[in-house]
Structures are given as structure tokens and as C-alpha cells.
Amino acid sequence: MDQPASRLDMLRFARRVVQQQTARQLALIDRWIADEERRERERRQGEERRPPQPDWLIQHGLNRSNIDAVHTGDCWAAAKSGRCRPATREQILEAMRQQVPACVHCHPDNVLGMSD
Questions:
Q1: What is the pTM of this model?
Q2: Euclidean distance between CA atoms 90 and 58, whole angstroms
Q3: Residue 15 phi, psi dihedral angles, 5° rounding
């Protein structure tokens, strides 16, 4: 006949169960840490590889053949349009000489000292 487990046997069994569960939970947390470290590393690499923000932007029309406006490189309105391309200071000045309107939000004409 089997003898009932002693109190000491039950405590040892409980310890083994807790030890196994703890090992599994630690392994899970270690995976989460590794995943987060990988994501952080990828984010930093992405920031390092990102080209510098341009100083100036030219906004093209829907047909991409005409120029609708000129912007400073950090203009939020230009970012929303999705139709802007980086430009040099000279390209912005030339566009403004040809009556291309300056953005009413970032005022590149003021930055360049060309406002009326």
C-alpha cells in the first residue's frame, strides 16, 4: 500500500514546482528584454541612418510639373502634403522670383528676408 506523502515530501514538491515556474517566467522575461533591446537598437540605427532634414522644400502640384509653394525644411504643412522635395536655397530664391507663393505657415520669405 502506498503511504501518504509526508509534509516534507509535499514541501519539496512545491519547491520544485515553484522553481520550474520561476525558470519559465524568467526565460519569458529574458525574451521580452532581448526583443526590446533589439527594437531599441533598430530604432537608434534608423535615426543614425536617416538623412539630415533639408533646409528648404519645394512643393509640387498634383501633376508634379508645376510648383505650388516653397517651405522651410521643418514646416509641418509641407510634411502633411507629401508632395515636397528637398531644395537648395538658390532653388527657393529662384522659385520665389518666379512668383511661387511662400508657405503661409513657415514663411520662408521672412527667413530669406524677401517679405514685402
A1: 0.59
A2: 12
A3: -65, -45
Distance of CA 73 to the CA centre of its chain: 17
pLDDT digit of tens for each residue in the chain (116 aa)?
688 999 999 999 999 999 999 999 999 999 999 999 999 999 999 999 998 989 999 999 887 778 889 999 999 988 887 889 999 999 999 999 999 999 999 999 888 887 65
Reference 116, options 19, 101, 25; nearest CA is 101
Question: Do 57 and 84 touch, CB atoms closer than 8 A?
Answer: yes
Cβ neighbours for 67, distance < 8 A, ≥ 6 positions apart:
58, 59, 60, 61, 95, 100
